[in-house]
Design a protein that fits this description.
Blueprint (H helix, E strand, L loop, with lengths): L2 E12 L3 E4 H5 L6 H8 L3 E4 L6 H16 L8 E5 L10 H8 L6 E5 L5 H15 L4 E9 L17 E13 L7 E9 L7 E3 L12 E3 L1 H23 L8 E4 L4 H11 L10 H4 L6 H11 L8 E8 L3 E8 L1
Parallel strand pairs: 4-5, 4-6, 11-12
Antiparallel strand pairs: 1-7, 2-3, 6-7, 8-13, 9-10, 12-13
Helix pairs in contact: 3-4, 6-7
C-alpha cells in the first residue's frame, strides 16, 4: 500500500555580503575572539545591508532552491516562511516573497516558532502535502536578527546573524517503508513556562515597539540538550531507527557546545554532524536550511541519505524531523 511523502526536490540558501568577525566585535565590546569561540564556536556572522529585508533574503534563497530543484515558480502552490523578523507586522512576509516570485495562486503565510521555525514549517508543509491540499511547497527560513539585537549586550549580540535557506517539497507516492524518500516523521513540542529565558522585550500589543532580544544563556543551555534528545528519541521510536542508521545530523546552529553535547548523548558520531555555526552564527529559523544546503552543495548529503534535523528556540519550542534525501 503506497503512502504520500513530502520529497525534497532541491534546496537553496542566501547570505548577506557583509561579514562581521569576532575581531571586529572585540573593537566595540568587552569581548574577544577567543572568548566567543570557546563558549559558542562562532567565528563570524553575516549582517544584512541597509535596505535589505527578510523578504529579500528569503526570495533569493527560494530562487536558488527552485533552480536546484529544476522546477518553475508557477508550480508552487504553498509557501511557508519561518521567521521571527518579518518585514512588517502584517502582511505576512511570505506574501511578499510569493509576489516577488511572480506567484499569484495558492497560499503563503508566515510561521513563528523562533529557532525551531524551520522544523515547525517543514512539519506543517508535510501535513498539508500528505492530505492532498497542496502538491508542491516552498519551505523557507529567513531572518534578519541583527535588527533586534542590543549591540551593547555582549552576551547576545555576538551570537546571531542573518541569512536564509529554503527547500522545495513535492507530494509523491512512496511504498510506505523506511527506504522511502521524503519526510518520514516529525515531532513538535512547546512549553510557555520558559518564556523569560529567551524572548524579545517588545511587540505591537505590549510596547508598540520592536524590542530587543533578551536571553538567560545558562538556563537555555541547561534545558537544550534534554529537550533536543527527547524529540529525537521520539523520531527513532516512530521509525524503528537508531543513531547508527543516521547518515547526517543537521542540528540548529546555535552553539557548538550544545550540538556536541547532544550528539554525544545520542551516540551520533561527530563525523556525521553538519556544523556551520562557526561561519554563520545563530541564524534562528534559517540555520537548519543553511546547514542543509551547505552539506548538499559540498556533496556530503546525497540522494537516499537518512537525515536528522532538530531545533530548539524561544518559547520554548523544540522539534525534530527525520527525512530521506
Amino acid at each position: 500500500m503506497t503512502v504520500t511523502r513530502s520529497v525534497v526536490l532541491g534546496c537553496g540558501s542566501y547570505l548577506p555580503e557583509q561579514i562581521l568577525t569576532n575581531a571586529e566585535l572585540a573593537t566595540r565590546l568587552d569581548t574577544s575572539d577567543e572568548w566567543i569561540v570557546q563558549r559558542t564556536g562562532i567565528r563570524q556572522r553575516h549582517i544584512a545591508a541597509a535596505g535589505e529585508f527578510t523578504s529579500h533574503l528569503g526570495t533569493k534563497a527560494a530562487l536558488a532552491a527552485l533552480a536546484h530543484a529544476g522546477v518553475d515558480a508557477q508550480s508552487i502552490d504553498l509557501i511557508i516562511l519561518a521567521t521571527s523578523t518579518p518585514d512588517n507586522t502584517f502582511p505576512a512576509t511570505a506574501v511578499a516573497i510569493q509576489n516577488a516570485l511572480g506567484i499569484h495562486h495558492g497560499a503563503a503565510f508566515d510561521l513563528q516558532a523562533v529557532c525551531s521555525g524551520f522544523v515547525f514549517a517543514l512539519a506543517t508543509a508535510d501535513n498539508f502535502l500528505r492530505t492532498g491540499a497542496f502538491k508542491r511547497a516552498l519551505v523557507i527560513g529567513a531572518e534578519t536578527f541583527s535588527r533586534i539585537l542590543d549591540w551593547n549586550d555582549r552576551t547576545t549580540c555576538v551570537l546571531f546573524g542573518d541569512g536564509a535557506g529554503a527547500v522545495v517539497l513535492e507530494a509523491r507516492q512512496e511504498a510506505g517503508e523506511l527506504a522511502d524518500r521524503g519526510v518520514l516523521t516529525t515531532h513538535l513540542r512547546s512549553d510557555g513556562r520558559h518564556k523569560s529565558k529567551l524572548y524579545v522585550d517588545g511587540g505591537p500589543s505590549s510596547t508598540q515597539t520592536v524590542g530587543h532580544l533578551r536571553m538567560e544563556g545558562r538556563e537555555v543551555f541547561k534545558h537544550a540538550v534534554g529537550m533536543i534528545t527527547d524529540v529525537i528519541v521520539d523520531a527513532f521510536n516512530a521509525t524503528g531507527t537508531s543513531a547508527a542508521d543516521i547518515d547526517w545530523f543537521v542540528p540548529h546552529q546555535a552553539n557548538k557546545r550544545i550540538i556536541d553535547a547532544s550528539a554525544h548523548k545520542l551516540h551520533i558520531a561527530p563525523e556525521k554532524v553538519v556544523l556551520t555555526v562557526d561561519r554563520h552564527g545563530n541564524t534562528s529559523a534559517a540555520s537548519i536550511p543553511l546547514a542543509l544546503c551547505t552539506a548538499v552543495t559540498d556533496g556530503r548529503i546525497e540522494t537516499g541519505d537518512l537525515v536528522l534535523l532538530e531545533a530548539m528556540g524561544g518559547g520554548f519550542t523544540w522539534g525534530s524531523a527525520l527525512l530521506r534525501w
